[in-house]
């Protein structure tokens, strides 16, 4: 299955939720269909794009239709692709320009954090990079075991301590090992839940301080993994994690399991950081770099 087809397949539930509402209206569009704009706004809101975002995008479409004299289905669809793509466009690349570079991965338990790390490690080792994993989720018994399995699958190194160890100490040892071994990328797994939220955020802040202190000149990406099925609720999680870890990008998983794929629009607008990867299935190749225009074209195709 090709890249575009994977996105289409992964967005099937969101597409089903949206396309039935507007396809016939696009086909009949003449430029004066006021109900079309109302229906479009409602559909975007139902897909979890957010009320303010939906209003903003529809307002821009109204202006484009008026200013450009757009008539007919192809014209309005093209304008929609441009406006929706522009809304979620950002820099999707991972900037890993130093040796070592660090990817700090955060998110609540159950969003697919460890699996995302494993898939990233497999992808990077396949490109010839020397990768080291840091098992800094020491509070969940299975976390280090799961990460070790991924390290073996990817053919990369792992640094882990015993359960209950200080996560920041794991990160310190991993960074020291990376420098000694010439590892190009260190990917850090972190806990998603402690006995209270403040302790979790304090722990993440401590880990981030260790990274900044030990690798002051390194490229650092801080990725928040969000479960797309949680929709708008995930945004509140992201805002809290951003304060503690300085989020540089979002990995949106489980898009294939939700009709709320419109949350991509809310993420970009409300968090101010780009979506860098999307997960549209369980396979190793189903974690894909995000492309705004291809995402929107798949949504409207």
Walk me through the topology.
Elements: H1 3-10, H2 12-27, H3 34-46, H4 51-68, H5 73-88, E1 101-106, H6 113-126, E2 131-135, H7 141-154, E3 157-159, H8 167-181, E4 185-189, H9 197-214, E5 220-227, H10 233-245, E6 249-253, H11 263-271, E7 275-279, E8 287-289, H12 292-300
Parallel strand pairs: 1-4, 1-5, 2-3, 2-4, 5-6, 6-7
Antiparallel strand pairs: 7-8
Helix pairs in contact: 1-12, 2-3, 3-4, 4-5, 5-12, 6-7, 8-9, 9-10
Describe the structure.
With 301 residues, this protein is α/β, with parallel strands linked by helices. The chain has helices at 3-10, 12-27, 34-46, 51-68, 73-88, 113-126, 141-154, 167-181, 197-214, 233-245, 263-271, 292-300, and strands at 101-106, 131-135, 157-159, 185-189, 220-227, 249-253, 275-279, 287-289. Helix 7 links the parallel strand 2 (131-135) and strand 3.
């Amino acid at each position: 299955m090709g890249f575009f087809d994977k996105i289409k397949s992964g967005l099937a539930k969101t597409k089903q939720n949206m396309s039935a509402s507007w396809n016939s209206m696009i086909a009949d569009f003449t430029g004066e269909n006021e109900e079309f704009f109302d229906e479009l706004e409602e559909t975007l809101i139902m897909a979890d794009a957010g009320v303010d975002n939906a209003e903003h995008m529809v307002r821009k479409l109204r202006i484009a239709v008026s200013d450009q004299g757009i008539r007919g289905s192809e014209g309005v669809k093209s304008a929609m692709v441009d406006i929706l793509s522009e809304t979620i466009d950002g820099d999707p690349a991972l900037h890993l320009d130093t040796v070592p570079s660090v990817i700090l991965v955060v998110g609540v338990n159950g969003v697919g954090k460890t699996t995302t790390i494993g898939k990233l490690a497999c992808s990077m080792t396949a490109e010839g990079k020397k990768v080291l994993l840091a098992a800094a989720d020491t509070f969940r018994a299975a976390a280090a075991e799961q990460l070790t399995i991924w390290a073996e699958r990817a053919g990369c190194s792992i640094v882990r301590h015993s359960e209950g160890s200080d996560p920041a100490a794991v990160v310190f040892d991993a960074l020291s090992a990376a420098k000694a071994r010439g590892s190009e990328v260190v990917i850090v797994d972190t806990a998603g839940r402690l006995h209270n939220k403040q302790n979790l955020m304090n722990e993440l802040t401590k880990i981030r301080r260790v990274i900044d202190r030990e690798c002051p000149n390194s490229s650092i990406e801080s990725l928040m993994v969000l479960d797309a099925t949680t929709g708008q609720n995930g945004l509140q999680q992201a805002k809290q994690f951003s304060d503690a870890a300085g989020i540089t990008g979002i990995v949106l998983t489980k898009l294939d399991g939700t009709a709320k794929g419109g949350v991509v629009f809310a993420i970009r607008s409300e968090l101010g950081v780009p979506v860098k990867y999307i997960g549209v299935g369980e396979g190793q190749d189903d974690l894909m770099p995000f492309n705004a225009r291809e995402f929107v074209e798949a949504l409207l195709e």
